[in-house]
Amino acid sequence: MLAELTIADFMARLGSGDATPGGGGAAALTGAAAAGLVTMVARLTTGRPAFAAIEDRVREIIREGDALRQNLLAAVDTDAAAFEQVMAAYALPRKTDDEKAARKAALQPALQGATESPLAIARSCLVISGMAAELAEAGNPQTITDAGTAATLAQAALQGAIFQARVNLKSIKDEAYTGPIRQEIEHLLAASQEATRRALQAVEQKLV
């Protein structure tokens, strides 16, 4: 399991010639780091009288952030498995018409799986971006740089995941499938940029 490797071993594997982990796994791990920072900031905010007005929301962020961190760590392996399915489909023989048909029948679902996996990563990262913005604006100001780092990591992870989704999406023939996915990608990118803008604006205001 990739997610169970030590940091040093994971980075060595990432820098090797192995196909996995690749951009999707790196995006998932980066998103998990962003989620960890979000929950750290939240835990350093909760229980303090100065932030009593947002106590309930901060506790929600802790619960949701912890779950997202675990989900994103699991996605490191899920994304690798989805990529390997695509590679297995591409490796199928295609000399005869029957072989070509069988290969096509295997490839399109595999490509959809390899699109959905990074999309799920991106969706999680958007939620993290929003929580980082909330905490940057209203959380413990002593952790403002951590909230800002969480926001920028989440945005980078989301963008990286979108790249992985798009490279598979372009090979999918079903327009009824690809159309809504392309629209969702546009929404994810725009919403992430806005959340990051909010977070970094708060950071700049509090670092002056």
Keywords:
mainly alpha, 80% helix, elongated, Four Helix Bundle (Hemerythrin (Met), subunit A), 208 residues
Q: What's the number of extended β-strand segments? A: 0
In percent, how much strand structure appears in the residues? under 5%
Please, how many helices?
A: 6
> Are there runs of 5+ residues with pLDDT below 50, and where?
none
Largest sheet: none
Distance between the termini: 44 Å
**In the residues, how many domains can be counted?**
1
Helix content: over 70%
State Rg: 19 Å
How much is the average pLDDT?
96
CATH architecture descriptor name: Up-down Bundle
CATH superfamily: Formiminotetrahydrofolate cyclodeaminase monomer, up-and-down helical bundle
Structural class by secondary-structure content: mainly alpha
Structural topology:
Elements lengths: L6 H8 L8 H21 L11 H36 L6 H42 L5 H26 L5 H33 L1
Brief write-up:
This protein has 208 residues and is mainly alpha-helical. Helix content is 80%, strand content 0%. The chain has one domain (21-207): Formiminotetrahydrofolate cyclodeaminase monomer, up-and-down helical bundle (Four Helix Bundle (Hemerythrin (Met), subunit A)).
